[in-house]
């Protein structure tokens, strides 16, 4: 269970505080006596059913969300939509429109902050990535020297998280990568991340599309001694199931479907990159 102190550190930001209060207008107007006369309560919309539907969606998302940030963000979205629906059903169409406009402005002006919890992911530049590929990454030089000092050749593994700041999926997925980094970082297994908005040359090098409709983001690539040794989402040439489909059109559809809905769970990362076996030679 996540400690309260950690949640406070991760969630005590203007984005979450302001969005919380932004979810309340309808409930205040509906239940505070001095505001009730602003609504035509004789309309009697099916409030209970709507509350139950929204509540059920929030509960379902609690089980499916990868992090507290993701669940709270989704819950806020549902509650803000509830405000719009209820204002409209009570005959306040103008209020609903103005609220929707304000919600859109808030989304642009105050975006959700990135994951702030515990992590062992190292922020990398394109030069850092070049050094890793050529076993020259100076920040880990002491660790590498200590292993070489034992007279043994130890493979170096890097799991690199390629992301963009505009991708919501990347933002959510970082929590899962961070959890994996906390559990599996060792003296020869490291986790890094690189912002492709800053280093578009890296995106080109690793054939990662940066278009709004890209199926390549987020991407995780395993480097073994600087060479690519695995990737998520998988490419067609790495997917054994695709090789069994002879019809090219069906293969393209299957590949698109797999890349669109690939498993972003921690279990998927562990199994794909065999993290349980990437231990240094004793």
Automatic annotation (TrEMBL):
Domain named Thioredoxin: residues: 154-242
Entries under InterPro entries matching the protein: Thioredoxin-like_sf, Thioredoxin_domain
Transmembrane segments: 12-29, 50-66, 86-110
Coiled coil regions in record: none
Pfam families xref list: Thioredoxin
Keywords: Membrane, Transmembrane, Transmembrane helix
Recorded superkingdom: Eukaryota
Keyword Membrane tagged: yes
Record's protein name: Thioredoxin domain-containing protein
């Amino acid at each position: 269970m996540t400690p309260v102190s950690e949640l406070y550190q991760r969630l005590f930001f203007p984005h979450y505080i302001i969005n919380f209060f932004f979810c309340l207008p309808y409930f205040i107007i509906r239940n505070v006596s001095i505001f009730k006369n602003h609504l035509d309560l004789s309309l009697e919309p099916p409030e209970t059913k709507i509350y139950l539907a929204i509540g059920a969606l929030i509960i379902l998302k609690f089980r499916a969300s990868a992090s507290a940030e993701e669940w709270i963000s989704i819950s806020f979205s549902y509650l803000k939509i509830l405000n719009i629906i209820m204002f409209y059903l009570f005959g306040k169409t103008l209020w609903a429109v103005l609220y929707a406009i304000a919600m859109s402005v808030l989304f642009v002006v105050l975006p959700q902050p990135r994951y702030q919890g515990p992590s062992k992911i190292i922020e990398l530049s394109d030069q850092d990535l070049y050094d890793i590929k050529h076993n020259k990454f100076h920040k880990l030089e002491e660790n590498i020297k200590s292993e070489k000092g034992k007279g043994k050749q130890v493979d170096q593994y890097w799991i690199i998280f390629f992301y963009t700041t505009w991708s919501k999926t990347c933002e959510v997925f970082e929590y899962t990568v961070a959890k994996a980094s906390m559990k599996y970082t060792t003296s020869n297994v490291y986790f890094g991340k690189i912002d492709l908005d800053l280093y578009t040359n890296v995106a080109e090098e690793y054939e990662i599309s940066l278009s709004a409709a890209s199926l390549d983001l987020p991407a995780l690539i395993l480097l073994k001694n600087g060479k690519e040794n695995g990737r998520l989402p998988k490419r067609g040439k790495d997917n054994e199931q695709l090789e069994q489909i002879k019809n090219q059109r069906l293969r393209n559809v299957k590949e698109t479907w797999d890349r669109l809905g690939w498993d972003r769970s921690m279990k998927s990362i562990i199994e794909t990159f065999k993290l349980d076996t990437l231990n240094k030679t004793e």
